[in-house]
Amino acid sequence: MDAGEVLRLDREHVWHPYTAVPSGTPVHVVRRAGGVRITLGDGRELIDGMASWWAAIHGHNHPRLNRAARDQIDDMAHVMFGGLTHEPAVRLAHRLAGMTGLDRVFLADSGSVAVEVAIKMAVQYSGRSALLTVRGGYHGDTFGAMSVCDPVNGMHHLFTGMLPRHVFAPAPPDDYGRRPAAKSEAGPDEAYLAELTAAVEVHAARLAAIIVEPVVQGAGGMRFYHPAYLRRLRELADEHGILLIADEIATGFGRTGEMFGCDHAGIRPDIMCVGKALTGGYLTLAATLCTARVADRIGVLMHGPTYMGNPLACAVAGASLDLLAERPWREEVARIEAALLDGLAPAAAAPGVRDVRVLGAIGVIETDQPVDVAKIQDIVMGHGVWLRPFGRLIYTMPPYACTPDDVARIADAMVAATAAL
Q: Where does pyridoxal 5'-phosphate bind (predicted)?
């Protein structure tokens, strides 16, 4: 089909994420993707500044990942995981356990499902049903995951009456990270540490777990917080016999400059969720990992996705982790961070800009008012860049394979977009 026909049928039948039907923002046809670029139906090439929702860390159409998929599909694309096992899943679980220090690995379909599984693990382990989290967080779109997303400023307020009510501590101060403007990084706020302590102590007797996104709050606002708050939550969990769940779906596999967000704080959670970049953006796969102590006490876990342990996804994930181990990802992420610090600096003085912040391969321009998504996208596409702003955020989480020139173009596009504010 030509691009016009694809768009016609799209308008008639397809429901896109976070939109009405028909979509209120333009939809663009993609013909192919290679390296860090996507090619549209009209021939335009755009740098994928989103790593396709933070997943394609190696870029698109990578020969190593392509080969892993082709080799695996010749053996089997899928078999049920109930009563059966296979090498790609076992190798992946062994690899993840070695990377995290968490011995038991439950392979899931998506990040939201991984969070659902983590919540079930905590409830079965403790016999309690309440969770504590912090405001400003986002953990997914399924019902258990929605219940621990920010209840006021999150995207799930329509379902508030149907969701379990958990305990929400105040949002952590977002004064961590490296800013182009001359803001020095502040130390931890002692008053906030006291607030966290009080929130846990008051509710400890009914808490199954504490769940947070380590150091970076993703879709809840792209906020960066001091690792000291995460360390304190680990201490509080230990003091009161509560599990700590780390939602590393967005932060895992190097995005923040460390392999996992928890590494900034030097702590290990009892349960960890990973996804997104796990397969390098090729196939949907996530995992919930826990300690042997947690798994042994739970016994039978009442969850079993149909596509759990999909061999094709596991094979590609294994190849993606091999590739990550071989590439100088720390240096790549550090170069992206430095380029974003330089490139986004002019936006800090722009009218309508509230803040500019950078951490690892994450660059954020926060605006005073919600942005016009279609208008911003039109501007950045004119600069040869694909971004997907939301709320009051114009942000990028590019592939690690981006060159300095690629990152400079992304930053230039973002700064140009601030002129539309």
A: 111-112, 247, 305-306
Judge if 52 and 196 occupy the same domain: no
CATH number for the domain that contains residue 125: 3.40.640.10
In this structure, are 213 and 265 located in the same domain? yes
Catalytic residue list: 18, 138, 247, 276
The CA distance from 149 to 139, in Å, is 6
List, in order, residues 6 or more apart from 161 with CB less than 8 Å away. Answer: none
26 labelled ligand-binding: no
Quick: pLDDT tens for 309-368: 999 999 999 999 999 999 999 999 999 999 999 999 999 999 999 999 999 999 999 999
> In this structure, is residue 312 part of a structural domain?
yes
Task: Kindly report the average pLDDT of the chain as a whole number.
Answer: 95
Asked whether residue 176 is marked as a ligand-binding residue, the answer is no
Domain boundary pick from 292, 308, 326: 326
Tokens 């947690």 correspond to what residue?
294
388 belongs to an annotated ligand binding site: yes
Instruction: Please identify, among 326, 352, 369, the residue that sits at the C-terminal boundary of a domain.
Output: 326
Residue with tokens 């149909």: 306
Instruction: Find, among 118, 222, 155, the residue nearest to 19 by Cα.
Output: 155
Asked if residue 68 belongs to a domain, the reply is no
With 60 as the cut, is the pLDDT of residue 183 above it?
A: no
Q: Tokens 């062994």 belong to which residue?
A: 94
CA-angle at 176, arms to 173 and 178, nearest 5°:
150
Domain count, the chain: 2
Question: Using one digit for the tens of pLDDT, what is the confidence trace for 361-384?
Answer: 999 999 999 999 999 999 999 999
Contact (Cβ atoms closer than 8 angstroms) between residue 72 and residue 312: yes
Tell whether 170 is in a known binding site. no
Give the global pTM: 0.96
The domain in which residue 139 lies consists of 76-326
For the record, the structure tokens of 89 come out as 């899943």
Give the count of alpha carbons within 13 A of 121, CB side only. 31
Instruction: Give the tens place of pLDDT for each residue, 38-73.
Output: 999 999 999 999 999 999 999 999 999 999 999 999
Give residue-wise pLDDT tens across range 110-142: 999 999 999 999 999 999 999 999 999 999 999
Q: Is 306 annotated as a binding residue?
A: yes
